[in-house]
Amino acid sequence: MILLPSWWVPPALLATVLLVDVALSIRPVRFIRDCLHSVRFPEEWWWALLVVKTLAAAGLIAGIWIPGLAFAANSGVIAYFLCAAAAHIRARATGSAFWVNCLGMLALSCVTLALSFL
Predict the structure, then answer these.
(1) Are 2 and 117 in contact, with CB atoms under 8 Å apart?
(2) How far out from the chain centre does Cα 28 lie?
């Protein structure tokens, strides 16, 4: 098993996208706020999503040099977006935010893992 990414660009790109998501979520822009409300995620827990995404981005970047860390962080991001997809399906919130944002991020996470570690 490869413990370091074969190419540093995919994990760095995913980390950048996650950090942009964090920046947009500090004072959530409308589409993020609408998305979180649509799955009935409590506002008092929105801060936890910022922490999870920031730690994932840090793990992806540090994992470029630390064996196994990028793989673990990338796997965690995939699990996060699988849970987000399940929450959308459960809440029957399968509009454009689900298809573009949630599944788009899941696809990006899966492609990153495939390009970096397969």
Answers:
(1) yes
(2) 16
Buried b (16+ CB within 10 A) or exposed e, 32-67: beebbebbebeeeeeeebeeebeebbebbbebbeee
Q: Are 30 and 54 in contact (CB under 8 A)?
A: no
Region of 75 (left: φ > 0; alpha: ψ -120 to 50; beta: rest) is: alpha
d(CA 18, CA 45): 18
Amino acid at 35: C
pLDDT at residue 112 tops 80: yes
pLDDT in tens, 35-88: 999 999 999 999 999 999 999 999 999 999 999 999 999 999 999 999 999 999
Query: Rounded to whole angstroms, how far apart are CA atoms 110 and 118?
Result: 11
Give the model's confidence band at 118: pLDDT under 50 very low, under 70 low, under 90 confident, else very high.
confident
